[in-house]
């Protein structure tokens, strides 16, 4: 499967989800062996409980290699997980999946304004979203509008960081064996919109 076919498979699955026509794969354990995984896409997504990634793309066991972290940020462990999947499974597509009404983005904005953080752990997430906020915030900002703008910009920032952060990722892209695409899940409609390359 090439990168375009992988993305189309996700688009088709999301359309089934939106139309309530999902295949709803059932767990069927095998007594003798476990099938090896061959994920056709890697998804770096937010941890938000309202974004069940396999479900919104209508995919089954072994189809997606999923890495979840609040704010769909890029940090060394996420890069390593993506490198692992590319090296082990030759997965042709990485999706950075953000979503509307992102709590991590909202928390990062609040931390920026109030100059505080809930904990050092939360700060390790919000500080990675901070550069995007710095470029977008104005004195007369509207919070909800800013969350939407920052969420989109944060997805694009994560795509760029992945493209630039790893020799394994760069080599796969240079050989046209990998593409990295940003996408946003719309909580109100269930639709996933893919960002242009």
What is the N-to-C succession of helices and strands?
HEHEHEHHHHEE
The N- to C-terminal Cα distance equals: 19 Å
Helix fraction by DSSP (H/I, runs of at least 4):
40-55%
Q: In the CATH hierarchy, what is the architecture of the domain at 3-20 and 39-101 and 155-194 at level 2? A: 3-Layer(aba) Sandwich
Q: What spatial form do the alpha-carbon principal axes imply?
A: globular
Query: What is the alpha-carbon Rg in Å?
Result: 17 Å
- The fold-level CATH name of the domain at 3-20 and 39-101 and 155-194 is Beta-carbonic Anhydrase, Chain A
Q: State the low-pLDDT regions, or none.
A: none
Number of helices: 7
**Fourth-tier CATH superfamily name of the domain at 3-20 and 39-101 and 155-194:** Carbonic anhydrase
Q: Would you tell me the overall average pLDDT?
A: 93
Helix/strand-derived class?
alpha/beta
Protein name: Carbonic anhydrase
EC number: 4.2.1.1
Cofactor: Zn(2+)
Pfam families: Pro_CA (PF00484)
Any overview of this molecule?
- The chain is an alpha/beta fold and 197 residues long.
- 48% of the residues lie in helices and 14% in strands.
- It has a domain at 3-20 and 39-101 and 155-194: Beta-carbonic Anhydrase, Chain A, CATH 3.40.1050.
- It has helices at 3-18, 53-56, 76-89, 103-114, 120-136, 143-165, 167-174; strands at residues 41-45, 64-68, 93-99, 179-185, 192-194.
- It is globular and about 55 Å long.
- The model has no long low-confidence stretch (mean pLDDT 93).
């Amino acid at each position: 499967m090439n990168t375009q076919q992988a993305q189309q498979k996700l688009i088709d699955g999301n359309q089934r989800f939106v139309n309530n026509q999902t295949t709803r794969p059932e767990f069927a354990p095998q007594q003798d062996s476990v099938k090896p995984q061959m994920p056709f896409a890697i998804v770096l997504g937010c941890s938000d409980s309202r974004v069940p990634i396999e479900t919104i793309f209508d995919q089954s066991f072994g189809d997606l290699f999923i890495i979840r972290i609040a704010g769909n940020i890029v940090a060394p462990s996420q890069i390593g997980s993506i490198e692992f999947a590319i090296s082990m499974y030759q997965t042709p597509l990485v999706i950075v999946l953000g979503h509307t009404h992102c709590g991590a983005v909202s928390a990062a904005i609040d931390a920026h304004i109030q100059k505080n953080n809930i904990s050092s752990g939360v700060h390790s997430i919000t500080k990675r979203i901070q550069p995007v906020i710095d470029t977008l915030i104005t004195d007369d900002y509207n919070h909800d509008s800013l969350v939407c703008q920052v969420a989109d910009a944060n997805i694009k920032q994560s795509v760029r960081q992945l493209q630039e952060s790893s020799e394994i990722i760069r080599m796969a892209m240079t050989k046209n064996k990998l593409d990295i695409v940003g996408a946003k899940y719309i909580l109100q409609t269930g639709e996933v919109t893919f960002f242009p390359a």
